[in-house]
Every structure is written in C-alpha cells, then in structure tokens.
Design a protein that fits this description.
Helix content is 43%, strand content 19%. By secondary structure, it is α/β, with parallel strands linked by helices. The chain is globular, with a radius of gyration of 19 Å. The protein starts with a strand and ends with a helix. It binds 1,4,5,6-tetrahydronicotinamide adenine dinucleotide. The site of 1,4,5,6-tetrahydronicotinamide adenine dinucleotide (TXD) has 35 residues, from helix 1 and helix 4.
C-alpha cells in the first residue's frame, strides 16, 4: 500500500519537498496551499516529469483539507519566510495564526499522521502545533537541527577538503542564534575534530568562525536571495525525517522534539538527537555534555522558553 505524504504549504520548500518525494518515490504526494492554483500547478508540473524520471507515484494539488485525509506523513511549511534584516523570531505573530489554522485542518483528517513542522520560528511553532492538534508528542516533530548540522558539516568539509558525507556531527538547541554546534562530538572521516585542531589541521579560530557562519546560515542566504529564504537544504532535511519514519530506518537525527525530563528539561520542544522510526520519535538520545556545552545548551533553552512565553501572550490558550 503506497504511503500518503501531504505537504501543507506549496511554496519554495513545499514545492521542493514534493519534487524530492517524487524523485525518491517515497509515496503518493498531496500538495496543499491556500494560494489559489499554486499547489495544483506545481503538482502538475512535477507529474509531467514522471516519464523522464520514471517515478510512478501519484501527485496532486489542492486547497481542500478533505483531499489530504488519512495521510501517513504531513510536512508543514505553511507560513511566511524572512525578509532581509528579519530574525526568525520576527515571524512569530503571523505564523502562529497560520499554524493554528493548519492544525484545525489536519487534526480531523489525519489524526494518525507523523507531522514534521518546518515553519519558523521553528521551536515555538512546532510546540504550538502539537498543542493545537493535540496529537501525541512523539508524532509531532520540528525540522531544524538536520539543516543546521548539515550547514556546519558542509562549511567544515570546505575547510578540511573532505567529502561532506564523511563528517558526522550535530547541532543542539533552538533553531536560532543560540544553537550549539557540537564541536567535541564531531568526527571528520573517522577522526575527532578536536584532535584535528590539536594537530593543526584546522585552527580553533577557524572552527569558531564556522560555528558562527552556521548560526547565520539562513540569514546569509536571505541576504543573497533578497526575496525568500533557503529551501533546497531545508527540503532535503525534511525528507530525511519522513523517510526514517516511513521506512522505519531508526536514524539518529537532530530534531526539535518534546522533552519530558531529558537533559533536565520538561514540557518544551528543543533540538536534540532523537531516533525516528515507525512509531515516530522513538527515543531522545541523551549525550554527555561538558560544562561549556551544558551552559550553551541552557542558554538556548532559555531563548526558546522566552519565545514561547511571547507566543502565550499572543495566544493565551497555548
Ligand atoms: O530550518 C527551518 N525550519 C527553516 C524554516 C528553514 C528555512 C525556511 N524556514 C521557514 O519555512 C520559513 O521561515 C517559513 O516560515 C517556512 C516556509 O518557507 P518557504 O520558503 O517555503 O516560504 P514560501 O515560499 O512563502 O511558502 C510558504 C507557503 C506559501 O505558498 C503560502 O501561500 C502558504 O505557505 N501558506 C499557507 N498554506 C496553507 N495554509 C495557510 N494558512 C497558509 N498561509 C500561507
């Protein structure tokens, strides 16, 4: 039985998600958007590449939630992206309203779906989405850490001239300026990054520069594009999560997940390594943090909490 993947938001990321899902043949795709014709037009365009790309999945577009019912996976990008000079947090007001509307749309039609939220400000929007839908917390997760980790690994690969796929690392914490690139948990082609610093293959200051560039990875692209923000790598990141769920791959992936005591954090969504399999978020992976990492992680958690308090001022029902 073919899986059903619904993409709420057929914009830059949504359209790319649809294209990747078709090329990777991970399931039938329904694109949804409130902008008239956008979802239908993009679905038809991708469908017309089937004879060339040899995929046999069904792909359609709609602005009616009934067409999305009984989805196995729902990936949400509905919302507005940043403009130059805006922070991710500046999007809170408008995207909170949009995510409430999306929650109303999916909670009746796909109560069993695994829901991946991409809309910014990610950590708070995914938290709001879980509360608005009432879906179990292990079935609602945010995409950010995979993207941030991929940016960190890519920048490192440029500096160390290695295949980016051979770098293992991850980013902890919120999807914002307080994110924590885990330098001491980074392996480059089988070697610890900290050893490469000691042996002079890369300087500490260059690593710190890469940590900063990772934090600003989104803003750097917004500056170039002027209109819109990153969408190719965000879409690849969302698809990796969807595939780990649909194929029960049990990958360990950095995602915004609900913590209920892990890392000393309760009742908050924040970026941590999790195992994603057929049950959704199956486990929060607890790694040992050194004192500095603990401090940085706590700082990130504080930032997420503060933004969630701002969200509760906008909508006291949260
Ligand atoms: O790592 C991450 N999580 C971030 C997330 C990485 C990059 C971008 N990030 C955020 O994703 C970005 O800040 C935005 O909040 C979302 C979507 O970014 P995208 O670049 O895809 O934005 P677009 O191209 O504007 O697409 C958004 C679509 C657009 O077509 C709107 O018509 C639609 O969302 N939209 C809606 N769809 C359904 N329902 C409602 N209410 C709605 N409102 C707008």
């Amino acid at each position: 039985m073919k899986k059903k993947i619904t993409l709420i938001g057929a914009g830059q990321i949504g359209g790319t998600l649809a294209h990747l899902a078709a090329l990777k043949k991970i399931g039938d795709v329904v694109l949804f958007d409130v902008a008239k014709g956008l979802a239908t037009g993009k679905a038809l365009d991708i469908a017309q590449s089937a004879p060339i790309e040899n995929f046999d999945i069904k792909i359609s577009g709609t602005d009616n939630y009934n067409d999305t019912k009984n989805s196995d996976v729902i990936i949400i990008t509905a919302g507005v992206p940043r403009k130059p000079g805006m922070t991710r947090d500046d999007l809170l007001g408008i995207n909170l309203k949009i995510i409430k509307e999306v929650a109303e749309g999916i909670k009746k039609t796909s109560p069993e779906a695994f829901v991946i939220c991409i809309t910014n400000p990610l950590d708070v929007i995914v938290m709001a989405l879980q509360k608005y839908t009432g879906f179990s917390k292990n079935k609602v997760v945010g995409m950010a850490g995979i993207l941030d980790s991929s940016r960190f690994k890519y920048f490192l690969s440029l500096e160390l001239k290695v295949n980016p796929y051979k770098i293992k690392s991850f980013v902890l914490g919120g999807h914002g300026d307080t994110m924590v690139s885990m330098v001491n948990h980074t392996i480059v082609d089988g070697k610890n990054l900290s050893d490469l610093i000691k042996s002079g293959n890369i300087s500490q200051s260059k690593v710190e520069e890469i940590v900063e560039r990772t934090k600003n990875g989104g803003a750097e692209i917004v500056k170039h594009l002027q209109k819109g923000s990153a969408f190719y790598a965000p879409a690849s990141s969302g698809i990796e999560m969807a595939e780990s769920y649909l194929k029960d791959q049990k990958k360990e992936l950095p995602c915004a997940a609900y913590l209920q005591g892990e890392y000393g954090v309760k009742d908050l969504y924040v970026g941590v390594p999790v195992i994603i399999g057929k049950k959704g978020v199956e486990k929060v992976v607890q790694i040992n943090l050194d004192e500095n990492e603990k401090k940085l992680f706590q700082n990130s958690i504080k930032a997420v909490k503060e933004l969630f308090d701002a969200a509760k001022k906008i909508d006291p029902s949260l």
